[in-house]
Amino acid sequence: MIDLIQMIVNGVAVGSSYALMGLAMVIIYKTSEVPNFAQGEMALISSFFAMMLLTSFNMSLYLAFFLTFVFAVLLGFFLEFAILRRAKEPNILGMIVITIGIEMIILGFVSWKFGADQKTMPFPIGPYDSFIIGDIFVSKLEVLTLVAALLLMTTLYLFFRYSKLGLAMKATQQNSVAAQIVGVRTNRIMMMTWGISSLVGAVAGLLISPTIMQPFMMWDPMLKGFAAAVMGGMTSLPGVIVAAYMLGIIENLFGGYISIEFKTVVAFVIIVLVLCVKPSGLFARHYIKKV
Amino acid sequence: MKKRLGLVLLISLAFLLSFAPNLCAEVGVTDTEIHLGQWGPQTGPAAAWGNVARGTRDYFKWINDNGGIHGRKIVYHMFDDGYNPAKTKAGVKELQEGTGMFAWACGVGTSPGLAVRDYLAKKNIPWVGPAAGSMHWVDPPQNNLFAVYPLYYGEAKALIKYAIETMGKKRIAIAYLNDEYGKNGLRGALEELKAHGMKAVAQVSMENKDTDLKPHVMKLRQSKADLVLMWTGVGHSARIVGISKAMKFEPQFMSTSTTSDFPFMMHITKGLWEGVITGTLGELPDSGYPLLDKYKEEVFDKYAAKEERWGVFYYAGILFTEPMIEGLKKTGRDLTRENFINAMEQIKGFKGIGPEVNYKPFNKNDMYSRQGASQTFLVQCLAGGKAKKLTDWMSIK
Amino acid sequence: MDMKRDYYEDVQLLTSPVVLFWFAVLIGSLYCLPFFVDNYYIYVANYIAINIIVAAGLNLLVGYTGQISLGHAGFFAIGAYGTIILMTKAGFPFLLALPCAAFVSGCFGFLLGLPALRLDGPYLAIATLGFGLTITQIIGRIELFGGREGIHAPDITIGSWVLDTDKEFYFLLITLTIFLLLFMRNLIKTRVGRAFIAIRDADIAAQTMGVNILYYKTLAFAVSAFYAGIAGGLYAFVLKFIEPEIFTLMMSIMFLAMVVVGGLGSMMGAIAGATLLCWMDLKLRNILDIPYVGDWLEHLSNNWFSITGVSNIQYIVFGSILVGIMLFEPLGLYGIWIRTKKYWRTWPF
């Protein structure tokens, strides 16, 4: 029993980082229908930027994190403005290829600048600090990740629901021509979306980096976050959160009770099964395609 | 232009060679130069091992600046294969058939090495010190291949033996990476346990890609082990120790020589590595071993890039190629592959910064005719990344 | 461009005697190549030919049928393992083992095609990506396949002919490649190919016109996987040693990149894309040896970046090519070719 609860707690903990990455992807997909494969690397470069500020420039933590967030937003703006907006005849495959290209560029850039050695980021909460409730242990860093994921999800949900900008984003997604006609600057909206998404990704990156930093560290969270986003329906914010925690918990229970060998890939098998039953994910409304 | 000229020269050289095979002494050797090649991942997921190749490069520079070998300078060709065997094979063929290498040094990784092993063997091109302790190099032994890296298999045996006989541990669990490296360690550990009439209380395997290791640690904790042997990558080992600490599961940890870089391990675990026992590849950086200090001053400080780290991987690049340089020196001025292999076979009790290296004349039933080093010693990590020597150099045959 | 006067002209493989002549010259020179160049270039040619087969198969799926696959490394792995296992464990001769393994790979393609019937866009991307990752993981855990320790390929013998050099293997490989490419071109030119294109352009409309979507979509997956399987089986013998970790996600991405860089929906494009990217992948190894640029990069690395990570510039180059192609020439190399041809045809106007 203790083990079961512990596994669920672990699943929730690991689900939080998937949730953050998934959120970041959903935000972009919601407005521009781009499955952003560069999301992980955008978070990666932000995390390494923070580490550089902390270790090479000896900045205080708050200032460094603040600058990192500014950097992340600007990076999102830049990528949308300089690359995505320039794409001719964008179809979904083209977008996937462009974002994979961006991903490779950033990955190469980070590895060139910082080398391949493992590093850790100085952070007030150590990666292995924990507290114990009863016999269940909970890692402090993961509690922080959980709080960050839920907080960001709620904020974004409210933001999309009630704020003027959020509504404009929704309008852009549903019909960008109509949105333009009623006076929404869709270009600017897209840029904002990328900025916000990059910021969410950076939060995820910063919360992963205290453990071990190396250029490939974001691949796994990105792919799992993507999987969660797809399972949640790609457009639903609460959906991605629920799916991410489900994946985390299933992974841990599967690892604990069935087979630890196939733990890493069970998420993808589940995705395929879910998609067979519900082709647009668990929580998305299924749009009927018109000819 | 330079390349074009080189190509023309090469083609004419090949032309010459095909007509007059007796004119030239040996591929890759001239009156003033010896061409040696090496691959090492500088990109991709295994790039953290790239230091090995860079260590070798700087070591060869140092040799050249100290007069070279019998009047010849080493021309060193390193290429990046990104740990992709197809690229390794392409690069080896390009250098071997284009420029012409006399021999190959080091070379990181089991699968890149396996992709070219048979190619080099068929042409009988010497290859010294592959940077992986795999059984594939010496089982069966090959005439051209001189392994230096002590076998993981033997190292695991030594660690388990110490755990049982000296520390009196009763419940031993093993965590291993599901690949060649991890499986070799596991095999050695299980055999040694069996020899003592014991069984592993848990065997937990993990994949390279795994980053969430909590389920694995929980498995280890459920087994109530009092000692955990980790045959995993650097990052994995750090996480296992950290998560175990967080879960209040505190057995004695043992790990492989790849994690014997204690200052670095202390850094990435934020001090939790203290108390871990590992095997070693060579002398320790802070042991005051004179030759190692000399390398640090004369090789590392002088040639290494400013962001290079003086750690185990870097000087492993020196360690694996020391026997090769020794062999080249022994061969003398008349450098052919046959002479070189003969000279390598005569290396007895050679001691550089690593374990003692011995080779024997080729015998296809004796893997120690080609497995040079078979010694290790155990160390324990102390506060501040210092190391305590637990044993002396001991044989792990 | 050229006017077609009747149906048979449209389905013809070779449109004119001139084309036939140049085609014969090309094939002749390909067969003569080993007598003129170094062994290393033969190895590279083998490597490229294998990638061309995968790219041609993937192009059928991505370029002609409009599906997405980020899991072709999985099919590639099935082909490679299947061939070796059938040869070593079941004693099949090579020429039988290769198509059998590729057929197994094609069956997996068919299975993956079933969920793909209802999926598109990111959903299909993640499903195929998951397939690629899962397959290698499963292979790595099965002892029969040598697990993660990998297995060695035996020598190929056809009758009494033992192919143990790159040159001998080249003749086999080039024959297979030409055969497979011709078959592919044939397939595209016929009813089946037109059905694929109809599905790409408007699947519901195609269905209304009587194209059996279930059949043709799964067929596209199966044929594409079959090609990847054949290529995988051959790849095992180029390397002589395989292990699951070779067949990474990065490999799948490179396959997709070849098709996209070459030009979607064009055979010539797939061939050009595979050749260019493979060549670059091998050549960018030693980035500091490139004349002029190398020195500058070294200087830059020493002052601003790290010299230890300088090789990673190849990722930047590849990424830039992908982004650049999509931004400036979505039709890829094939588009560039068409444009140059047009320009010269109308020159100087």
How is the topology of this model organized?
The complex is a heterotrimer of chains A (291), B (397) and C (349).
Chain A: H1 2-32, H2 39-55, H3 61-82, H4 92-114, E1 130-133, E2 136-139, H5 140-162, H6 164-174, H7 176-181, H8 186-208, H9 219-232, H10 237-258, H11 263-277
Antiparallel strand pairs in A: 1-2
Helix pairs in contact in A: 1-5, 1-8, 1-9, 1-10, 2-3, 2-4, 2-8, 3-8, 5-6, 5-8, 6-8, 9-10, 9-11, 10-11
Chain B: H1 2-19, E1 33-39, H2 50-65, E2 73-79, H3 85-99, E3 103-105, H4 110-123, E4 127-128, E5 145-146, H5 152-166, E6 172-177, H6 180-195, E7 202-206, H7 214-222, E8 227-231, H8 234-246, E9 252-255, H9 262-268, E10 277-278, H10 290-303, H11 312-319, H12 322-331, H13 337-345, E11 375-376, E12 379-381, E13 387-389, E14 394-395
Parallel strand pairs in B: 1-2, 1-3, 3-4, 4-5, 6-7, 6-8, 8-9, 9-10
Antiparallel strand pairs in B: 10-12, 11-14, 12-13
Helix pairs in contact in B: 2-10, 2-11, 3-4, 5-6, 12-13
Chain C: H1 7-11, H2 17-32, H3 39-64, H4 72-88, H5 94-116, H6 121-141, E1 151-152, E2 156-158, E3 161-163, H7 166-189, H8 191-201, H9 203-208, H10 213-239, E4 241-242, H11 249-262, H12 267-283, H13 293-303, H14 313-328, H15 332-346
Antiparallel strand pairs in C: 1-4, 2-3
Helix pairs in contact in C: 3-7, 3-8, 3-10, 3-11, 3-12, 4-5, 4-6, 4-10, 5-10, 7-8, 8-10, 11-12, 12-15
Structural class of chain C: mainly alpha
Q: What number is the mean pLDDT of chain A? A: 88
Q: Largest protein interface?
A: A-C, 54 and 55 residues
Q: Which H/E pattern describes the elements of chain C?
A: HHHHHHEEEHHHHEHHHHH
The count of β-strands of chain A is 2
Strand order of the largest sheet of chain C: 1-4
The shape of chain A, in one word, is globular
Distance between the termini of chain A: 54 Å
Shape of chain C: globular
